[in-house]
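re: the backbone from monday

yeah here it is again, tokenized this time
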């Protein structure tokens, strides 16, 4: 009996050690899985944006809101169907300045066009380059549920519980002109041409989005950057939309 008691005590101590390690291993596995999904999703967004994609309508299954706060108001662009399923609510945003709702996330072109909004716009609404001083700054944040991941979370899955429990994140988009020497008086035309024909695209992912729609106190984050050669043009039909034209370059005056 004494030997059995000692054996059970040894086994119990070993089990306590093993059980205490299991949560750490599961958490590490979850973090690795989320980072893999983020890496794959970043490729999708960067390719769609840098190519000025107009037919990426599959994004309507994943992007449920785009928020663009500025000094006058908070412009909230929503996906009418998916935003409700994900529990997205403007109650999470301050009401001063007022929230302006625009339910236009109904096709991929509108989503890509909003995410391509330049970091700086002229006060008259046109695209600003790095040597234009009277410009307004934009802050573009997208609320997204993961594009990659378990198949049972993906469309045509319409169970609201599974939709809200799916892995989701926020993306901070920056479409900025490359830095140039504004004092380059020797060849100002080259400076203007470079500023108008080469831009930096930065995507910063923050995750995970909690069930209450907010981020944890210390979220995971990852930033992806690329340079895109070509112009950014403003859509003629909707002034809120912008698209990269990677094969189009400006001629400096």
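seq for it, each position gets an aa:
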């Amino acid at each position: 009996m004494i030997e059995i008691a000692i054996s059970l005590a040894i086994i119990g101590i070993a089990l306590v050690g093993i059980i205490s390690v299991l949560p750490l291993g599961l958490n590490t596995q979850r973090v690795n899985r989320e980072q893999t999904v983020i890496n794959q999703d970043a490729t999708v967004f960067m390719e769609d944006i840098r190519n000025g994609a107009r037919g990426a309508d599959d994004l309507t299954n994943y992007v449920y809101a785009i928020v663009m706060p500025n000094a006058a108001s908070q412009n909230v662009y929503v996906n009418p169907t998916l935003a409700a399923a994900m529990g997205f609510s403007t109650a999470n945003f301050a009401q001063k300045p007022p929230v302006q709702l625009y339910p236009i996330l109904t096709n991929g072109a509108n989503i890509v066009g909003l995410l391509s909004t330049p970091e700086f716009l002229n006060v008259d609404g046109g695209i600003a380059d790095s040597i234009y001083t009277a410009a307004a700054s934009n802050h573009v944040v997208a609320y997204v549920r993961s594009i990659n991941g378990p198949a049972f979370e993906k469309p045509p899955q319409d169970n609201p519980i599974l939709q809200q429990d799916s892995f989701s994140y926020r993306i901070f988009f920056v479409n900025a002109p490359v830095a140039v020497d504004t004092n380059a008086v020797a060849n100002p035309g080259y400076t203007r041409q470079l500023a108008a024909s080469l831009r930096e695209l930065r995507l910063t992912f923050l995750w995970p989005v909690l069930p209450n729609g907010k981020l944890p106190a210390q979220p995971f984050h990852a930033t992806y950057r690329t340079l895109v050669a070509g112009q950014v043009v403003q859509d003629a039909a909707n002034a809120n939309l912008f698209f990269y034209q990677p094969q189009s370059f400006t001629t400096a005056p």
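Residues 2-245 form one domain. The radius of gyration is 23 Å.
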